[in-house]
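Support request from a user on the community tier.

User writes: "When I paste my structure tokens into the form, the page sometimes reloads and wipes my input. The last time it worked, I copied everything first. Here is what I submitted, just in case something in the input itself triggers the reload:"
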């Protein structure tokens, strides 16, 4: 696990203390520079505060918003002796639903903040549903501002009961609760002396010990070809290598494979990794493989195992988050990018859209507006090789692009 990267996203309502939590996490883990610390200490004093305002560490993002700069997601990085972390700091407002989807799409874990005074609110349900929809494997519910409820265990237990009842309806495999005070630092990096009744781990310990290796699909081998390598040098005159990033599964020298869409078969001759020749490759490594036979393989081809192939279809059933300023209407046409395939897609049906306030479905819709999430059916002009998103996030996702301005307008997750 040492050196392993954990990507996590944060979500919370406007005043749940998300910025303060990120600042406290960076400060207590000694992940900020001395000049940064001196700056926020000075600013806190000028504001007349008795304590350091850790939310100032993320104020750059707020200043940019005040200047009218459009921001999707702000990323922050820090390291502990045990692992590396990438934080996707996403806005929590309802009008920024698309931003959370963007930041959470590659996350291993989600931190959902709840104000201990307010309990489970609509934003909590909205963010939890999105985490479930995006199949984020691990959810940590941080019940913040425990100092404002006198660190009472009863307040913590009430929120656990309320959230657990709601979460039972979602597809969240692993979630845990931690009572914290981001302002005071209780249970963020150091254990709280104010809550001796809590015997669980701190937030940082939980983040350091999340097992992300088990989240990868090691069963279904998928390699979407990005390029064919033909050096044609004197030493490698006949070399033909197929390069790409392994989406899932494991490939070994000697394995029998099938190339899609041609269904041509061959055997793996060699596998070249970042450090040279290897006996096996596995997700999410980038590799170049040689086959025993010279096949017609190019970008947009997919290499799979003979007895384990993905779905292949032009009729796609998917959930989509609409990112575009202009609505998505029935029969609209878009560019679709899926793995290394680029084609055209037609919106055939809007099955329903989601009311994220009540987590209910709306039927009979003829268009989807920005930040809406909906289930749609589309048809592509070329077959896609895909798995259900819940089974494989890499081969189960796609984006839609406006043909006129080439803006990314939709992020999709294939159902089956």
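"...and here is what came back when it finally went through:"
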């Amino acid at each position: 696990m040492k050196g392993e990267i954990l990507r996590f996203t944060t979500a919370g309502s406007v005043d749940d203390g998300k910025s303060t939590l990120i600042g406290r996490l960076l400060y207590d883990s000694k992940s900020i520079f001395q000049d940064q610390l001196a700056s926020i200490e000075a600013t806190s004093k000028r504001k007349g505060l008795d304590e350091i305002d850790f939310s100032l560490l993320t104020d750059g993002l707020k200043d940019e918003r005040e200047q009218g700069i459009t921001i999707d997601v702000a990323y922050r990085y820090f390291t502990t002796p045990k692992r590396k972390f990438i934080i996707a700091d996403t806005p929590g407002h309802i009008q920024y639903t698309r931003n959370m989807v963007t930041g959470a799409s590659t996350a291993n874990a989600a931190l959902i903040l709840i104000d201990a005074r307010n309990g489970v609110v609509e934003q909590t349900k909205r963010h939890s549903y999105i985490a479930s929809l995006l199949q984020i494997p691990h959810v940590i519910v941080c019940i913040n501002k425990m100092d404002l409820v006198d660190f009472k265990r009863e307040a913590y237990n009430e929120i656990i009961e309320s959230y657990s009842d709601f979460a039972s309806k979602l597809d969240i495999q692993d979630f845990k609760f931690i009572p914290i005070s981001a302002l005071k630092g209780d249970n963020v990096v150091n254990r709280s002396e104010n809550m001796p009744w809590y015997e669980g781990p701190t937030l940082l310990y939980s983040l350091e010990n999340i097992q992300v290796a088990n989240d990868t699909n090691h069963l279904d081998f998928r390699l979407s070809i990005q390029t064919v390598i033909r050096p044609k040098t004197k030493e490698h005159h006949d070399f033909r290598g197929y390069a790409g990033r392994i989406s899932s599964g494991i490939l070994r020298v000697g394995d029998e494979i099938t190339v899609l869409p041609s269904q041509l078969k061959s055997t793996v001759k060699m596998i070249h990794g970042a450090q040279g020749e290897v006996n096996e490759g596995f997700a999410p490594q980038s590799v170049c493989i040689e086959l025993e036979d010279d096949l017609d393989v190019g970008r947009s081809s997919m290499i799979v195992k003979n007895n384990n192939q993905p779905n292949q279809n032009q009729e796609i059933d998917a959930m989509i988050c609409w990112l575009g300023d202009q609505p998505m209407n029935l029969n609209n046409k878009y560019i679709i990018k899926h793995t290394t395939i680029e084609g055209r897609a037609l919106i055939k049906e809007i099955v329903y859209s989601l009311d994220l306030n009540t987590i209910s479905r709306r039927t009979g819709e003829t268009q989807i507006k920005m930040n809406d999430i909906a289930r749609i059916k589309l048809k592509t002009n070329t077959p896609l090789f895909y798995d259900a998103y819940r089974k494989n996030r890499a081969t189960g996702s796609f984006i839609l692009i406006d043909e006129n301005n080439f803006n990314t307008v939709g992020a999709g997750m294939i159902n089956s």
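Agent notes: The reload is a front-end session timeout and is unrelated to the input. The domain at 222-305 is CATH 2.40.30.10 (Elongation Factor Tu (Ef-tu); domain 3). The chain has three domains: 5-215, 222-305, 311-414. Escalated to web team.
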